[in-house]
Design brief:
The complex is a heterotrimer of chains A (141), B (504) and C (142).
Chain A (H helix, E strand, L loop, with lengths): L4 H9 L9 H10 L1 E5 L4 E3 L8 E6 L1 E6 L2 E7 L3 E2 L1 H6 L6 E4 L3 E6 L1 H10 L1 H19 L4
Antiparallel strand pairs in A: 1-8, 2-7, 3-6, 3-8, 4-5, 4-7
Helix pairs in contact in A: 1-2
Chain B lengths: L11 E8 L3 H12 L4 E4 L53 H5 L9 H14 L10 E7 L2 E6 L2 E10 L5 E2 L11 E2 L13 E5 L3 H10 L5 E6 L6 H4 L11 H8 L3 E14 L2 E8 L4 E7 L1 E4 L3 E2 L5 H4 L3 E2 L4 E2 L13 E3 L22 H20 L13 H11 L1 H5 L4 E8 L3 E9 H6 L5 E8 L5 E8 L6 E4 L11 H10 L10
Parallel strand pairs in B: 1-2, 1-5, 5-17, 7-13, 8-9, 8-13, 9-10
Antiparallel strand pairs in B: 3-4, 4-5, 6-14, 10-11, 11-12, 15-16, 18-19, 18-20, 20-21, 21-22
Helix pairs in contact in B: 1-8
Chain C lengths: L4 H9 L9 H9 L2 E5 L4 E3 L7 E7 L2 E5 L2 E6 L4 E2 L3 H4 L6 E4 L3 E7 H10 L1 H23 L1
Antiparallel strand pairs in C: 1-8, 2-7, 3-6, 3-8, 4-5, 4-7
The chains are: A alpha+beta (141), B alpha/beta (504), C alpha+beta (142).
Chain lengths: 141, 504, 142
C-alpha cells in the first residue's frame, strides 16, 4: 500500500476510531503514529511479552489467538494493544497477520498522552471496549 | 579504436547482483565474498559512499566514533564505540573511521565519513562496477533480469541497497517551485535572506543551524511540535547539537518555530509568500521569505520494483519485508543498508531499531547474507558446539559485550539450540522477531533491551519444542556487567532440562 | 424527597464502572445525574430501544421482562445500563416499575460531555473495563 500523507489522512478519516476528528487533527494523528508493514503469519502482539504498543489496522486482517486457538479477527479500522498498555500488563493473546498487514503504531509510553490530547478518540475507544465486554460476558444491560 | 572497459562485472549471469555502493552495498558485498558467493556489485555513482557523498550538508554526523574508548580498537567490543566503520573479519580493516578522527570531535564530518567508506572499499579490495545505472527489472523463469545502462544482468537473488535519499515533497499547491533539502546551496548564498524551512526534523534543524549565521530570519514550520532527543531520552527526535535554533527562538534572535501546516506557496520574482494554517486552531498566518526549503523527507528509489510485485508502504515507500530483509511479496529480492528499517522488529516501547543507520545495518547485512547463502545456495550454517557448563557464561557474556546486541537492542539476538540429540550449538545472531515466532527445536536466545524508564537489561527467550518462545527479563547492572548471581540463578532455573537430566 | 449529592455519589460509586473514580470526578458525575420517578406499571426502559443511560434504583421495585418472561426483580441499590451509557446498544430487555419507583439517571450524552473535559475519568473507565474484559477472557480459557 503506497501512501502519501494525504492518502493516509483520507484513510484515517474513514476509521470510526477517528470519526470525530477534524482534518487538521487527523493530520496530527498521522504524524504521531508511525506506519509499519508486516508479512502474512507475522505476530504483532505476543502473549506474555513486555513493551507492547498500540496498533490501528489500515489494511489487512489479523487473528487473535489465545494459546494457539483463534478467538476473534480484526480488520481495517480496528485497533489492538491498548488493553496491555493501559493495564501495564503483557498481552494475554497473540495477534497474528493473516495477510500482508499495514498498520499505524504508537509506542506504549505515548498512548496515554495521545488519548489525553484527543478525548474523542479516547471515548470511541471506551465504547469499543464496552462493546467487547458486553459481547464477552453477555451483561444484563 | 574503442576503449577497453576494464570495469569489473560486465553484464551477464551472476548468482547475486547487489545494487548500490553506499554502506549497505559495500557491507553486503564484503560478506558475500567472504562466503564465496559470486556476485556483481553495481553502482550508478562514480565512487563509493552512497548518501555520504552528499549529506549531511552542514554539521557532523549524528553517529559517534570514539577514538579513545574502554576497549581496544581491534576488539569486537569496540564496535559499540564506533558506529561508522563497516565490519571486517581482518583486524586491520576494522575501525577504519577511528583512524581518520583527529580527536576534536567524536562525530565525523561528511568528508571523513566518505573517506572512511572509500578506504574500506580500497583496503578490503572490494570490486565495484561504477557508472552502471540500474534502470528496469523483470522476471524470466527463475531469474531476475536487471536492465542497466551497461546492459542486462541476470541473477537468482538481487539485493537493493539504494538508500532512502530520493527527495520527496508533498503536492501542496506551489511546492513545485520550492527547493528540496537536497538542493541547498552554499551557506554564504543565503546571506541576508529571510528563510522559510518546511519540516522540523533533523534535516530541517540541520539547515537552520547551518544557515543561522547567514539568514536574516528563519521560520521553521510543520504541523506538530518538534520532539527533542534530550526530552525523549533516546535518539528519537531532534538531536542535541541542533538545539541552537531553539535557543535563538527563546532569546528572540530571529528564529521562529511554528506548529502549522502549509496551505499553499505563492512565488514572486523576488521571493515567496507562504500561507500557513496554525495547528490547534491558531488560524491562518502569511509569511514572506526570499528562500523556501522543503526538508520534507525522502523516499526509496525503488524504480519499477513495485510494478514487479514488491509491496511498499508509508511515506518513504519502504518495501514490506520479512525479518530477514527479504521482500514479503517477491521472494529473491533482498534489501540492505538503510532500507532495512522496513523490517521494524519488535519495537518494544515504541523504540525503533538502528536498522536505518550504519551501526545497525552492518549487522543486518551479515545476517542477511548468511540467510541468502543457506536458503538459496545450499550453504550450511556452522554451528559450533557449546559445552553445557559454559552455556550460562556464554549467554551473559554476549549480553554484556556483544556489539550486535547493543547496537540492535530487542532486534538481534544470540541463539543457542538445545536439541537433546545434537547437543548445544551456537546458532549465531538471529533477528529476534524471527526467533520468537519460529517453530523449531528447543533453543534459547539472549539480547539486550531497554524500556520506557531507560533501564538497560538482558532479555532471554526460551523456546521449547513446538511452542513459541517465552520471555524473561533479567536484572540490569549499574556498570552493565550482567554476570550477576541473580541472573545466573535465573538462567539456571530457566534452562533446567528435567527431561534429559541436563540440569546445571 | 430530594436525594442529596452525597447519597448520589454513594449510589454511583457502587456501580462497578465507577470503581476507583476520584472524588473530584465523582462530584462532577453526581452533578449531571438526575432523579426520575416512575409510577407502577410504567416502563423505565423498553426492549430494543436505543440505550441512553444508566439507571440506579433508589426506592421501589422493578421487574426485568423479555417478551412475556420475567427474568429478574430489581430493588433499591440495583442498577442497569452500565454499558449502555457508554455504547448506547439497544436494551436487551424491558424494565418495568412494579410500584412507585425512584431512580437516579445518568444520560450518555451528559457522561460524554463530562469525559471530554475529564481525561482522567475516561482513562479510569477504560482501564476498569479493560481489566474486567481481561478477567472475563481469562475465565473463558479454563
Amino acid at each position: 500500500m503506497n501512501t502519501t500523507p494525504q492518502q493516509l489522512v483520507d484513510t484515517l478519516s474513514g476509521l470510526s476510531l477517528f470519526a470525530d476528528l477534524s482534518r487538521p487533527q487527523l493530520e496530527q494523528v498521522a504524524h504521531k503514529l508511525s506506519e509499519e508493514s508486516f508479512p502474512e503469519g507475522q505476530r504483532i502482539l505476543r502473549q506474555g511479552f513486555s513493551g507492547t504498543g498500540f496498533y490501528v489496522i489500515l489494511e489487512g486482517e489479523v487473528a487473535i489467538r489465545i494459546d494457539g486457538k483463534e478467538v476473534a479477527r480484526l480488520a481495517k479500522g480496528d485497533f489492538f494493544g491498548e488493553m496491555s498498555v493501559l493495564l501495564g500488563e503483557p498481552p494475554v493473546a497473540d495477534v497474528v497477520a493473516l495477510r500482508q498487514l499495514h498498520v499505524l503504531h504508537l509506542g506504549g509510553p505515548d498512548l496515554e498522552g495521545f488519548l489525553r490530547e484527543h478525548p474523542t478518540v479516547m471515548f470511541r475507544m471506551l465504547r469499543t471496549v464496552a462493546l467487547r465486554l458486553r459481547n464477552a460476558s453477555r451483561w444484563r444491560s | 579504436m574503442a576503449e577497453l572497459d576494464e570495469r569489473p562485472f560486465p553484464p551477464g549471469d551472476y548468482p547475486v547482483v547487489v545494487v548500490g555502493s553506499g554502506p549497505g552495498g559495500l557491507q553486503t558485498s564484503y560478506f558475500l565474498r567472504g562466503l564465496g558467493i559470486e556476485h556483481a556489485l553495481l553502482s550508478a555513482d562514480e565512487k563509493p559512499g552512497g548518501m555520504f557523498l552528499h549529506f549531511p550538508f552542514f554539521q557532523r554526523l549524528l553517529s559517534w566514533t570514539k577514538p579513545y574508548a574502554q576497549v581496544d580498537r581491534h576488539d569486537r567490543a569496540y564496535e559499540w564505540y564506533d558506529w561508522n566503520s563497516l565490519l571486517a573479519d581482518e583486524p586491520e580493516n576494522r575501525a577504519i573511521m577511528a583512524e581518520l578522527m583527529d580527536g576534536s570531535s567524536s562525530f565525523p564530518s561528511r568528508p571523513e565519513m566518505e573517506l572512511n567508506l572509500a578506504s574500506y572499499a580500497e583496503r578490503t579490495a572490494l570490486r565495484v562496477r561504477y557508472g552502471c545505472r540500474w534502470e528496469q527489472t523483470r522476471r524470466e523463469a527463475e531469474r531476475f533480469v536487471l536492465s542497466t545502462s551497461d546492459g542486462d544482468y541476470r541473477c537468482k537473488v538481487a539485493v537493493f541497497a539504494v538508500g532512502v535519499a530520493e527527495p520527496w515533497k508533498p503536492d501542496t499547491p506551489g511546492f513545485e517551485h520550492v527547493a528540496h533539502y537536497v538542493q541547498t546551496r552554499e551557506a554564504a548564498s543565503y546571506a541576508g535572506k529571510r528563510l522559510f524551512i518546511v519540516g522540523k526534523q533533523n534535516s530541517g534543524f540541520e539547515l537552520a543551524t547551518g544557515l543561522l549565521p547567514w539568514a536574516q530570519r528563519i521560520v521553521l514550520a510543520s504541523p506538530r511540535p518538534a520532539k527533542l532527543s534530550v526530552n525523549t531520552h533516546s535518539l528519537l527526535g531532534v538531536r542535541a547539537r541542533y538545539v541552537q535554533p531553539f535557543e535563538d527562538e527563546v532569546l528572540g534572535g530571529g528564529v521562529f518555530i511554528l506548529n502549522a501546516s502549509i496551505v499553499r506557496v505563492e512565488r514572486f520574482a523576488d521571493g515567496f509568500r507562504v500561507h500557513c494554517l496554525r495547528s490547534e486552531g491558531g488560524g491562518e498566518l502569511v509569511v514572506d521569505a526570499e528562500e523556501v526549503i522543503a526538508a520534507t523527507g525522502f523516499t526509496s528509489p525503488l524504480r519499477d520494483l513495485p510494478d514487479l510485485g514488491v509491496n511498499v508502504f508509508g511515506q518513504s515507500r519502504l518495501p514490506s519485508m520479512t525479518n530477514y530483509w527479504e521482500s514479503s511479496s517477491l521472494p529473491g529480492i533482498f534489501f540492505a543498508g538503510t532500507i532495512g528499517q522496513g523490517s521494524a522488529g519488535m519495537k518494544k516501547y515504541g523504540l525503533p531499531s538502528n536498522s536505518g543507520a550504519v551501526h545497525g545495518a552492518r549487522y543486518n547485512a551479515r545476517i542477511m547474507v548468511g540467510y541468502v547463502a543457506r536458503t538459496y545456495f545450499g550453504h550450511k550454517l556452522e554451528r559450533p558446539a557449546v559445552a553445557p557448563e559454559q552455556l550460562i557464561d556464554f549467554l551473559l557474556d554476549e549480553a554484556a559485550l556483544a556489539p550486535e546486541l547493543w547496537n540492535q537492542k530487542s532486534y538481534l539476538a544470540r541463539a543457542v539450540s538445545l536439541d537433546a540429540r545434537e547437543g548445544m550449538r551456537d546458532e549465531g545472531f538471529v533477528p529476534l522477531a524471527h526467533f520468537v515466532d519460529e517453530e523449531g527445536p528447543p533453543a534459547v536466545a539472549i539480547t539486550v533491551e531497554t524500556d520506557d524508564k531507560g533501564s538497560i537489561h538482558p532479555a532471554v527467550y526460551v523456546r521449547e519444542e513446538g511452542r513459541p518462545a517465552v520471555e524473561t527479563l533479567l536484572e540490569p547492572h549499574p556498570l552493565h556487567d550482567f554476570r550477576t548471581p541473580a541472573n545466573r540463578a535465573r538462567l539456571v532455573s530457566l534452562l533446567k532440562r528435567p527431561s534429559d537430566g541436563r540440569a546445571e | 424527597m430530594p436525594i442529596s449529592e452525597e447519597e448520589k455519589s454513594a449510589a454511583l460509586s457502587r456501580v462497578p464502572l465507577f470503581e476507583g473514580v476520584s472524588e473530584e470526578s465523582m462530584t462532577r458525575l453526581s452533578a449531571v445525574t438526575g432523579e426520575v420517578e416512575f409510577g407502577a406499571r410504567q416502563f423505565i426502559v423498553t426492549q430494543g430501544q436505543v440505550g441512553s443511560g444508566l439507571y440506579i434504583i433508589v426506592s421501589g421495585a422493578a421487574r426485568v421482562v423479555s417478551g412475556s418472561h420475567e427474568l429478574a426483580r430489581f430493588g433499591p441499590g440495583d442498577f442497569f445500563g452500565e454499558l449502555a451509557v457508554i455504547d448506547q446498544q439497544p436494551r436487551v430487555a424491558s424494565v418495568q416499575a412494579v410500584e412507585n419507583t425512584v431512580c437516579l439517571a445518568l444520560a450518555s450524552w451528559d457522561l460524554l460531555e463530562l469525559l471530554k473535559h475529564d481525561p482522567t475519568l475516561s482513562q479510569n473507565l477504560i482501564r476498569g473495563l479493560a481489566a474486567r474484559l481481561r478477567s472475563t477472557s481469562e475465565h473463558h480459557r479454563h
